[in-house]
Amino acid sequence: MESALDHHSARALLEWQVELGVTDAIVDTPVDRYALPDTAPKAKTSKAAQTPPPKTAKTDPVAVAKSAAASANSLDQLRAVMDGFEHCDLKRGARQLVFSDGTPGAPVMIVGEAPGREEDRAGKPFVGRAGQLLDRMLAAIDLDRTENVYITNVLPWRPPQNRDPKPEEIAMMTPFLERHIALAKPKALVAMGNISCQAILNKRGITRLRGNWDQALSLPVLPMLHPAYLLRQPHAKRQAWSDLLELRARLEGKT
Ligand code: URA
């Protein structure tokens, strides 16, 4: 077909089309490109590209936690290595690490489950309603976190929507808990609720375990009903009172 365009106008038009992304010259008659033989050059795949990448050993979060925990020689160091531990997804949903509260070196160390909303905000364990009940329970046997109780949780980060911690989360944080206990050097442990019994004693069934002294990490361990459970089931406070008396008797050397 004859073109009415002069050379300069045709060139300007072509450049404009290229700028718009045109890659093919359009011919006067339609072309069924699906019917054309496949002449596109095949991408060359080198031998290296065909070989799957060597399998890198999958990180074992429990092994990483064990060696990080073992590297800590003080509570401050332990807090720092836990803060730097990146293998627990809970960390990403939490505001901050909730490490401990109370008096390091105290005769009693209480181990709860995990921070809730208030604890996540405050950066301290047991400061919400369950924590306030815990303080009243402790006061009833002359214990006080500002003097003779040290408190931590199995998990230092708040689980989303306060869901139950997953077994793998408990497993990867347990080496830190064990090191925490070794560095805090309590005379007795109180395992509050099932998650704590799972992490410390490798046992579940708190209603059966509660009130009976057990042994772990060379320490006496008293499983107790969790204060959050007592808030929901006030009738169980009788059992909690009996367990508190058991704890006091042990601390006074009477059992
Ligand atoms: N429940 C726990 O187990 N720990 C806390 O810190 C708060 C509530």
Description:
It is built from twelve helices and six strands. It is α/β, with parallel strands linked by helices and 255 residues long. The chain has a single domain (61-251), classed as Uracil-DNA Glycosylase, subunit E (3-Layer(aba) Sandwich), CATH 3.40.470.10. Helix 8 packs across helix 9 (193-201). The longest helix is centred in the last third of the chain and has 18 residues, at 167-184. Bound molecules: uracil. Uracil binds at residues 112-116, 119, 125-126, 128, 130-131, 153, 228. Uracil binds next to helix 7.
Question: How would you concisely characterize the structure shown here?
Answer:
The chain has twelve helices and six strands. With 255 residues, it is an alpha/beta fold. The longest helix has 18 residues, at 167-184.
